[in-house]
Design brief:
The chain has helices spanning about 1-5, 35-45, 50-70, 125-130, 140-155, 165-170, 180, 185-195; strands spanning about 15-20, 25-30, 35, 70, 80-85, 95-100, 105. By secondary structure, the chain is α+β, with helices and mostly antiparallel strands.
Length: about 210
């Protein structure tokens, strides 16, 4: 609630108020219509690049906003991105809302706050989190790189039979752009994903 009540951005779900009673905290939030990005990907199999550009742009705008407020989401994934405006068939009408800040953290305060908690969804977790290192807002950038790969190709970049195998591939940055899948997708998109999936956080693309 502390994170959400101070944010006001068109691509972030809006928090209005909370009310207490003897048993519950009741949170009043914006009604977000549309469908999760995960459902849209299932429907489409893979999302066309012009659509993906709009989706990723909105996510990056929202992320820049909350990172400037020293907030880290820590659970950017397909299910936490809501889409509206798909009915028109024009990608320019798509609008994104980032939801579920349940794992987010406000990192500003009187004392320096080191992020060390293991959290997130395995396919989208940055390597520094898996390794148990201190991390910062750039873990969200990694997650958006994973998300971009996922929606353009229709498959996750790091695939394994179980969480242990997936973790191993993430920590070694073991992924590929297979020609039969990625040939129709621009080199610019592939290069951008590579820069977001830099294993060293300071080398990743930022939101600037």
């Amino acid at each position: 609630m502390q994170v959400l009540m101070n944010m006001d951005h068109p691509n972030i779900v809006k928090f209005y108020q909370c009310m207490y009673d003897n048993n519950y905290i009741n949170i009043v939030m914006e009604l977000v219509r549309g469908i999760p990005l995960s459902d849209y990907l299932i429907e489409m199999k893979r999302i066309p690049e012009d659509y993906a550009q709009v989706i990723i742009y909105d996510i990056m705008c929202a992320m820049k906003y909350y990172h400037q407020q020293r907030i880290v989401h820590r659970d950017i994934k397909l299910d936490n991105i809501m889409l509206t405006g798909l009915e028109s068939g024009d990608p320019r009408d798509i609008r994104v809302k980032i939801i579920d800040f349940g794992m987010s953290k406000l990192t500003r305060g009187k004392k320096k706050i080191n992020l060390q908690t293991y959290c997130g969804t395995i396919d989208f977790i940055a390597p520094e989190i898996l390794e148990g290192n201190n991390y910062d807002c750039s873990c969200d950038n990694w997650s958006v790189g994973v998300l971009a790969y996922f929606i353009l190709s229709g498959m996750p970049p790091f695939y394994g039979r179980n969480d242990q195998e997936i973790s191993g591939k993430i920590m070694t940055c073991d992924y590929q752009f297979k020609p039969d899948v990625w040939e129709p997708i621009s080199k610019d998109a592939q290069n951008w994903i590579q820069r977001m999936l830099e294993p060293v956080p300071k080398d990743r693309y930022t939101n600037e």
